[in-house]
Structure formats: structure tokens, C-alpha cells
Amino acid sequence: MQHIPGLPLGVGTWGLGLGTPAQAESERAALTYALDHGITTIDTAEMYGDGAAETLVGATIADRSRNELFLISKFYPWHATPALMRKALVASLRRLRTDYLDLYLLHWPGDTPLADTMAGLAALQDEGLIRAYGVSNFNVEDLKAARAVPGGDQLVANEVLYNVQSRGIEYDLQPYQDVAGIDLIGYSPFGSGNGRAITIPNAVQALAAAKGVSAHQLLLAWTMRSGRVLSIPKAASLAHMRANLAAARLTLTPADLAVIDAAWPAPTHPVPLESI
């Protein structure tokens, strides 16, 4: 990673802050544990629970030193004009209880001209409300279009779906970002929903058992294997967060990777960008 510090592991917050007070307490405990054990990056968005995730994060980090955190949030495509994104950002900052974001992302491509969006992001950066900016769910052509307008050359990150079952980005998007110096953030390392959306074949289950980890820990470690991807799984409990942190320390051998490649082959041709 070139612009985002810390481990190749962050914390996603999609779905957090929407449950009972007891669930919120569990979620906050998981976030606190992560921050106490080396994770610095938290990824959220105004979309997540209409701000509920940002509110939960803000309550969790209220007593922490801000310079030890790396906060990412995202704004809707229909807030992509300079005026509307500033309004959205101010609301996100209020919920997060901070006066700046480390990284602000356009959540997915929309109808607002990219020149307007890049101008708005550059203005927010000049104002000190954000330290850096990027995009999410952009394919190669989207990134090329964004980088072609004034301010687009300052994009530092693109957040996309990345897991063993959705690895089309390896063919063209990841190489393009490597050359362009744009960090890759991978969301949903287990698929969507309850984390069991990916069917795990027996050979991969056996590999995980042989390594003394769960299959999900194996799949998470796989997303981080290159050191060039920041993976951002959600964890709503201490047990899940501990498992994610352990996965970040797992080393996969060439033989291990061959088992996973046999189950989910690497792309050999361009694949349309997937998203959730």
C-alpha cells in the first residue's frame, strides 16, 4: 500500500449500528479490540444505515488520538457535485466526531461530470476537510476517465469487490492501479451477507484444517497475500475480529495458493467489474 498506512487489514462497517443496544455494544467492542491490536483503518460510508455506521464509529473513537487513525468514508453519486459533497462530508464528519477524513471516496460512478467531482474533492482537500481522495467501484475505463480531468491525477485509491470468487480485477484493474500508484481496497472478502455466500470446496476446507485455521480465515489471508491490497472485512463480535487479525498473520505457500487457484482460477481475460 502506498497511501494507506498500517496492516493490509482494515475494518469494514457495512451493516453496523443497525441492531439492538447489545449488538451495538458488541460491535463497538470489536472495533475497540481491532484498534488496540494494530489496525488503524476504518472504512465507512454515509450510505451505511443512513449514517448509523458512522455514528457508531464516532462513538467508538471519541476518546482516541485522531492521528493514530485512518478514517475512510464514501459519498453517494448523487452527492458528487462540489456543493452537495461538501454538505455530505460535513454530516459525515459530525457523525464521526472528527474534523477531517484521511480518505474520501465517490461510492460508485454516477451522472455528475467527473470534472465537477474531482474539482469538489480537490477543494475539500485544500480546505483541510480531507487529506486525500479516491473512488470506489471504478473499472479501468472509469479510472482512466477520472484521471484525465483536472484533479484526477491526485486519486490515491479505488475500493472494489475482491475475493476468491470475484478476482477479475487481477487481469487488468490491479495491474493498472499498480502502475498508476492507486491503492487497491478490497471489500467483501467472504462475499456478501452472512459471510457464507462463497461455497467452499472440500479441498479448501481440508487445507484450512491442515493449517489450523477456519476456511474464512484462509480466504481472508488470500486477499492480503500480495501486500498490495487492503482488505476490509466487517466484524461485529470480538471472536470474529480476533479471527480476522489472526488471518493477517497467516502465510500461504505456493502449494497453498495452488489449491485455491484450482478451486477459483485466476482470470485469463477481461472480466466486467463486479460489485455488491
Automatic annotation (TrEMBL):
One of its GO terms (molecular function) is oxidoreductase activity. Gene3D superfamilies: NADP-dependent oxidoreductase domain. Pfam families: Aldo_ket_red. It comes from the Bacteria. InterPro entries: AKR, NAD(P)_OxRdtase_dom_sf, NADP_OxRdtase_dom. Residues 8-264 form the NADP-dependent oxidoreductase domain. This is Aldo keto reductase. It comes from Lacticaseibacillus nasuensis JCM 17158.
